[in-house]
Amino acid sequence: MARVIWFALLILTSICLYFYKPFDTLPFSISTFPKKGKELVSPDALNLLQIHTNYAAAAYCSKQNLSSWTCGYRCFGNVTIEKIFHDEIKGAYGYIAVSEENKTIIVAFRGSADVVNWIYNLQFAQLDYEFPGIEGALVHGGFYHAYERVKGTILWTIQWLMTREENSCRGYDLVITGHSLGGALSSFLAIDVKRYILDPILSSPTHCLLPFKIHLTTIGQPRIGNHIYAKIIQTQLISQTSPLKHKVTRITHRNDLVVHLPPSKRGFVHHAHELWVKNKDQSFFCDDIVEGSEDPVEDPECLAGARWYTPGAHLSIWNTTFTFFC
Ligand SMILES: *[C@@H]1O[C@H](CO)[C@@H](O)[C@H](O)[C@H]1NC(C)=O
Ligand SMILES: *[C@@H]1O[C@H](CO)[C@@H](O)[C@H](O)[C@H]1NC(C)=O
Ligand SMILES: *[C@@H]1O[C@H](CO)[C@@H](O)[C@H](O)[C@H]1NC(C)=O
Ligand SMILES: *[C@@H]1O[C@H](CO)[C@@H](O)[C@H](O)[C@H]1NC(C)=O
């Protein structure tokens, strides 16, 4: 009897190994997923997001490599580092830089080597997120506390860059980007920049348009808060069409486990504008806004509906890898 079971197991394993192609195709993707015939994202749109992704990957590099902007393909272009921030206690790390050639201010946050540990062990409990006129927003306590420790420095530096005489009134874009945990911190910053820097400038009668437009690009971010928090991202950044049109893109890769965490049954929900990278050649914009409502829902035709996690999907995307080796 035992021999029969072993034999059956052996056959089953062989069949599985035969059909499992680790990094090329997803096991469930036998050309039918996603089903609704989503359109592929155009190469031009991808190009910009791939640049943002490399900025996020550069945040994994050492202070030495960053300050001279030498970290291989991640540090491309003519970029001047203005500030490297590092909080030794909660671990937030990243940089603020300016690209004069593309009129862009860049803020990039790195993730953490043990992100799953982070999500579960450090203040998993949600805390109240304070926002004027909105009640009931909750966010992951550990993520927010890490952000709080660098918030002042970063906002101050951005404000200073914006008001530097040579920069004012020249319409800089602000790219806020981060991988994994860094994506969570990026979202807090994007809301704060709008609230504390951009809105006051725009409401002053003497402002010169355009101060800047925010691109929030996160890669492989975990869930950050509840649906009311997701809705704040929606109303503050995504639905804003006048006078500036901000851009929010939540890039997800294959079936990255981290994007499923913390679990939605604990009340966490992702904010909108997921861009799902199924593989190097196929990326899709997802449907994560319910028509006529500001409530984001995760698109079951994108990562949320995928089964069987893909190992390694969290640490690389397109041609970019997120490692501490630069
Ligand atoms: C990072 O910096 C080190 C020392 O400054 C240098 O040797 C190395 O080449 C840099 N890495 C890259 C990819 O440029
Ligand atoms: C500026 O934008 C161009 C075109 O998108 C790109 O090729 C270049 O690498 C960018 N430079 C920087 C520093 O981001
Ligand atoms: C890089 O940008 C700085 C600031 O705009 C400029 O002074 C410098 O000449 C540029 N370097 C190159 C190689 O283009
Ligand atoms: C990725 O690398 C491959 C092979 O080196 C190259 O053909 C492709 O254009 C690269 N893609 C991007 C987005 O850089």
Automatic annotation (TrEMBL):
Domain of life per record: Eukaryota
InterPro entries xrefs: AB_hydrolase_fold, Fungal_lipase-type, Sec_MonoDiacylglyc_Lipase
Record-level GO BP terms: lipid metabolic process
Pfam families listed in its UniProt record: Lipase_3 (PF01764)
Fungal lipase-type domain sequence ranges: 106-264
Protein's name in the database: 6744_t:CDS:1
Naturally occurring in which organism (per UniProt): Dentiscutata erythropus
